[in-house]
Design a protein that fits this description.
Elements (H helix, E strand, L loop, with lengths): L16 H11 L14 H4 L9 E4 L6 H7 L5 E5 L2 H10 L6 E5 L12 E7 L3 H4 L10 H17 E11 L3 H8 L6 E8 L9 E8 L5 H9 L22 H4 L3
Parallel strand pairs: 1-2, 1-4, 2-3, 4-5
Antiparallel strand pairs: 5-7, 6-7
Helix pairs in contact: 1-4, 7-8
């Protein structure tokens, strides 16, 4: 019969601060880009940004993203990560850019006042919340709850009219239900990015605009997230096409 394709279980270390701390200490100043550098998705990103935007980068890691934005003229950039050794290294590396701000913070509990950013940006950070999930068709209640907590915080710190931009390998079918919650008070759309080759691996930009309504189809999609999954006897979800790598594999170290 048709079997659900399961991604191999990833080691359960990505969510642990000690794992990241050790990694960043070992790598020192070397940058690591989970989903490629800024140039790959700048054409899709730039229309959403204004130079004067107050930008928050979630889970910055030792990516050059924040500094790349700064070089392009986005000078109000705050970057957070829950690894103290990462933030120390980034502060030191970019000490010559005093307008880049760095803070140790948990994305599930942001220490910023309401409506304090025009843009919240994340690249591959929310994927870490899903990395221990073995079946994308049936996400654990813990992962759903963690994702909801982070997104509620993102929504809270966003200014009305501001946007949350999420860059990820996660396909719309699996990721949109998490984002399409009316509680967050934002609209949702996505664009696929790739290198132009038909065979190139695509990733997605999800753009959520605070204070705009969700499309009714997305509302319906979001509601399904909190319903128990249908019994497998009644429905078998279609298997993803074989040439489509799982994003879990794409972000493994």
């Amino acid at each position: 019969g048709m079997e659900r394709r399961r991604a191999p279980a990833a080691p359960p270390r990505y969510g642990r601060r000690r794992f990241w701390d050790t990694l960043y200490r070992r790598e020192g100043a070397e940058t690591r880009e989970w989903l490629g550098g800024l140039s790959r998705f700048l054409p899709q990103l730039e229309p959403e940004l204004r130079r004067s935007d107050r930008i928050l980068v979630l889970g910055c890691g030792n990516s050059a993203l924040s500094h790349d934005l700064h070089k392009l003229g986005y000078t109000d950039v705050t970057s957070i990560d829950f690894s103290p050794s990462c933030i120390m290294a980034m502060r030191a590396r970019y000490a010559h850019c005093p307008s880049l701000r760095w803070a140790v913070m948990d994305i599930r509990s942001l220490a910023f006042p309401d409506a304090s950013f025009d843009v919240v940006l994340e690249k591959g950070t929310l994927d870490v919340l899903m990395v221990e999930e073995t079946d994308p068709w049936d996400v654990s209640p813990q992962a759903v709850a963690s994702m909801h907590r982070v997104l509620a915080e993102v929504s809270r710190v966003l200014h009305p009219g501001g946007c949350f931009i999420s860059i990820t390998f996660a396909q719309p079918h699996f990721r949109k239900p998490h984002y399409a919650q009316e509680a967050f008070g934002w609209s949702l759309r996505h664009v696929a990015c790739g290198d132009g080759d038909a065979g190139a691996f695509h990733y997605f930009l999800y753009i959520m605009r605070k204070g705009q309504p969700l499309d009714p189809c997305d509302v319906a999609l979001g509601r399904r997230l909190h319903q128990p999954p249908p019994s497998p006897a009644l429905t078998t979800p279609p298997a993803p096409p074989d040439d489509d790598e799982d994003y879990l594999l794409a972000i493994q170290l």
